[in-house]
Amino acid sequence: MKIATYNVNGIGGRLPVLLRWLALAKPDILCLQELKAPQEKFPENAIRDAGYDVIWHGESRWNGVAILSRVGDIHETRRGLPGDPADEQSRYIEAAVGGILIACIYLPNGNPWPGQKFEYKLKWMARLDAHLKALFDLEAPVIVCGDYNVIPADLDVYKPENWTKDALFAPEARAAYQGYLDQGWTDAIRTLHPGARIYSFWAYWRRSFERGAGIRIDHLLLNTAARKRLSAAGVDTRPRGWERSSDHAPAWIELADRPVRGRKARP
């Protein structure tokens, strides 16, 4: 099973790119972020015509998340991250699909740092930490994926010195992300490619994509049951080079039907 996450940076203007990539890559399950569309403006018919069931949590102008599936019905289990009933931003949706629990997240950017937006980011990350603890020990595979807006380490950025004043690379944000890994969650791409420079975002300016000047902020975290089935992971950079594309590229994993030989749970 191939599962991917893709920040589309506005599904209205990027729909042709998304449909082209779906036809090319054929992910079984896809999580989308930054829809930038209210609930009633989501292109449901186009997605279903492409062969996918879909649920989405829209928001006018900003945010928005969705889950697509071509391998079975989507059974929504949660809409919105618990812990703050007053938070109305559309950043979290969760569903059961084909025996797997999928959580799609769009974590706050947090800039400018320091400031109120960064404080909101840290509070959101703390709420996510609490919810992840409730999900980790489920017997079913659990995948929490999306745009985390966190650069975990120096290896995940082209020039670390250029990001020292950015909320994505702030020590507090990186420490919160490390907290998820300390719970036992597996960063799929880094686990299978421990020393590789793999990026998922390239800014539009200064030919960042062409120069390879990127960052890795789109992550797929796996619980023990999912990690045992992890067989491949990466970033599909092809759509980033297409016209009118998002500044992100899809990150993906493949899960085998049964535990991969030699793949052990973290102690």
TrEMBL record:
Domain Endonuclease/exonuclease/phosphatase positions: 4-248
Residue sites binding Mg(2+) per the record: 7, 34, 147, 149, 247-248
Cofactors, names only: Mg(2+); Mn(2+)
Keyword Lipoprotein found: no
Regions crossing the membrane: none
Keyword DNA-binding in record: no
A molecular-function term among this protein's GO annotations: endonuclease activity
Site (Important for catalytic activity): 218
GO terms of biological process kind: DNA repair
Keyword list, A-Z: Hydrolase, Magnesium, Manganese, Metal-binding
Cofactor note: Probably binds two magnesium or manganese ions per subunit.
Annotated site residues (Transition state stabilizer) in this chain: 149
Residue(s) at site: Interaction with DNA substrate: 248
Superkingdom of origin organism: Bacteria
Active site, UniProt feature: 106, 147, 248
A Pfam family annotated for this UniProt entry: Exo_endo_phos
Family: Belongs to the DNA repair enzymes AP/ExoA family.
Protein name (Swiss-Prot/TrEMBL): Exodeoxyribonuclease-3
High-level lineage: Bacteria, Pseudomonadati, Pseudomonadota, Alphaproteobacteria, Sphingomonadales
